[in-house]
């Protein structure tokens, strides 16, 4: 893979339909996340229909971006820890066990948001990711996600 490939571009087709991050979901956000040193970065431009209070983004959008940025970060961190290529099998599939968001300031809707994540902990099947959301360089939200490798019997 090249340095600019997004993590989500490597998700196998059968897990590429997520509303937040699936490249095969035409109605979804289709976020793209890359490494920047030890941090991960996603940049996303909200649309006018993501409005909460006019001029500002809906909190659910911000939570969704944090969520999928973090599950992607969790998968990428596992590959990095094991020194594996992101296209190698078996794939590390992560789902969200816990999503915590602090909304610090309103997030403007008319400017790109930048989400940066750092891996806080990797333990067994669990990865904890801390994220910060900025608009125009201003910190507007913080998140913490517990991502867990999807069990074989997921949804059973
Ligand atoms: C970059 C490379 C790319 C290559 C390819 C990659 C492949 C693709 C990758 C990705 C695909 C895309 C996927 C997108 C996903 C987007 C996000 C979503 O919207 S996901 C939908 C919403 N989430 C659910 O529906 C989960 C429902 N919950 C469950 O199924 C279970 O509760 C699950 C799997 C999350 C955990 O259940 P257990 O039985 O497997 O896990 P236990 O053994 O209990 O816990 C493991 C560890 O996690 C902690 N944990 C579990 N639940 C927790 C919670 N709620 N809060 C805090 N910690 C929790 C536990 O304390 C434990 O940690 P301790 O080992 O003790 O340190």
Automatic annotation (TrEMBL):
It comes from the Bacteria. One of its GO terms (biological process) is fatty acid metabolic process. It is found in: Cell projection, Ruffle membrane; Cytoplasm; Membrane. The keyword Lipid metabolism applies. It catalyses: hexadecanoyl-CoA + H2O = hexadecanoate + CoA + H(+); (5Z,8Z,11Z,14Z)-eicosatetraenoyl-CoA + H2O = (5Z,8Z,11Z,14Z)-eicosatetraenoate + CoA + H(+); dodecanoyl-CoA + H2O = dodecanoate + CoA + H(+); octanoyl-CoA + H2O = octanoate + CoA + H(+). Residues 55-137 form the Thioesterase domain. Gene3D superfamilies: Hotdog Thioesterase (3.10.129.10). This is Acyl-coenzyme A thioesterase THEM4. It comes from Tibeticola sediminis.
């Amino acid at each position: 893979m090249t340095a600019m490939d997004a993590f989500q571009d490597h998700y196998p087709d059968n897990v590429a339909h997520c509303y937040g991050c699936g490249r095969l979901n035409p109605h979804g956000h289709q976020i793209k996340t890359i490494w920047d040193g030890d941090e991960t970065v996603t940049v996303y431009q909200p649309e006018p229909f993501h409005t909460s209070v006019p001029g500002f983004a809906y909190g659910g959008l911000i939570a969704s971006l944090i969520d999928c940025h973090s599950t992607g970060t969790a998968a990428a961190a596992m590959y990095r820890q094991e020194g594996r290529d992101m296209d190698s099998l078996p794939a590390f599939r992560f789902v969200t066990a816990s999503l915590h968001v602090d909304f610090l300031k309103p997030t403007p809707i008319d400017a790109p948001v930048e989400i940066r994540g750092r891996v806080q902990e990797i333990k067994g099947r669990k990865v904890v990711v801390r994220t910060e959301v900025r608009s125009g360089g201003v910190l507007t939200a913080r998140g913490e996600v517990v991502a867990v490798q999807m069990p074989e019997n997921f949804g059973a």
